[in-house]
# Entry
Amino acid sequence: MKRHIVLVGLPGAGKTTVGRLLAEQLKTAFVDTDGIIVRKMGMPITRVFAEHGEVKFREMERDAMTGALAGPPSVLVPGGGWAAQPGQLEAAHQSSFIVYMRAMAITAARRAGGDGTRPMLVGEDSTEIMRLLLKEREPFYQKADCEIKCDIKPPDQLAAEILALARERGLVS
# Structure
């Protein structure tokens, strides 16, 4: 791999599942910023949000991505809100191929809502929250190098599509 592959999109778009499959196919590292934060803080993301707030979480998320982007080319999966932080996508473009995993709000809500692990969705109408998040974040997501639709296709097919796109651009052999 010549560059990182960064997957962005709503919670529930399939970034983590597809990212793991893609990293396996590429025989490269998989980095999930939520996982880094959980290990560092010793608590689940919902507790980080509850005890430290969203501002602190976003700071930790930025730091985790900055560290990952400084490392060897890998498949990187930041949280759904990382891309909507000013300057983050622009900085990542220098060393990364960024893929927007586009999912409809209802699909993302169905996949992500209800298990209590997504702090932005706890205790609310997850479909309505996803619609609001999509409206807020999509202008940022659309700055990605390309996008793939993730509502119907299975994860292995999505990983294969991303791999094909990366090959077309000469980023992997």
Observations:
- The two ends are 7 Å apart (CA to CA).
- The chain has a mean pLDDT of 90.
- Strands lie at 4-8, 30-32, 75-77, 96-102, 146-149.
